[in-house]
Target: Hydrogenase expression/formation protein HypE
Amino acid sequence: MADTATPTSPAPVDPASWTCPAPLHDQPVVVMGHGGGGALSAELVEQVFALAYGNATLAALTDSAVLHLGSGPGTARLAFSTDSYVVRPLFFPGGCIGDLAVNGTVNDLAMSGARPAFLSAAFVLEEGVELEVVGRVARAMGAAARAADVVVATGDTKVVEKGHGDGLYVTTSGIGVVPDGVDIRPQRAAPGDVVIVSGPVGLHGVAVMSVREGLEFGVEVTSDTAPLAGLVAAMLAVTPDVHVLRDPTRGGLAAALNEIARASGTGVRLAERAVPVPEPVANACGFLGLDPLCIANEGRLVAFVPRAAADAVLEAMRAHPQGTGATVIGECVAEHPGTVVVSTALGGTRVVDLPLGEQLPRIC
Model:
């Protein structure tokens, strides 16, 4: 005889009791994801800082602010950017926090098409850190500045008690000059643009993670940290009408492309097979369950270029030392505005959303 008893009603679900590896959006305190360059970072900036500071220059939310020194035709323009570096460990294959701090700010300026000129450098040192370590970082910064043809013109130093900082943190700010006729910003992405990445992706994030977590992937993975202003200058020499540039650091290509798609109100379509993912990065991501599109880079850029100029720009990129691996990975489309999709190797399509936070925290 069939059991006709009435099923017991499930207990009420209390969302407040859930636990999840990704923090909820209504998190009342700062969590690591707020510094990851993804959705939580965007919410923090938009709902706290942008509201507090409230001005049109900040509202553009670009890698560097473009400042007009006056009004009318021929007005000089400066790019201005600042960034803090809390990478752990301080030294990693291919670089350290010092050259990373210089290259990161130089690259933020270059993403506006600017020629970087001057930097500031502020150190927060932890009591007890060896002066030899501070010296190594400073020397690396000096070498990186000379390589990028910028001057570290001013700075500051503070010390915190032992146990209140991982050795040292660095903040750099930079100023550069934007050439006449250059207008590079995410709002300029347009259907028909060709999307180009300057080289293999994911190397920096995996390099830092490998030494921090003691992981081995058969070969040493080296960070791609490098200055990109020279590469940008070579691209602009072909055409000043490059629409968008972005260095896909925290949150990787996924974060950068989503920000561009949403700012411009267009869609982005990528070809999975075209994205240059080095084998060690692919192996590490497969082992750890990570998406290579979300892994940080520190010496790569992604460009949106009008189709008519794309071949010439790609050729110029490949002729430059920082662009030898430049590859077309997709296009900007009118369909699915504000959304990034990938045509997979199996013939399907998947949406690449803005990461909630950084998969690998403390990588820059």
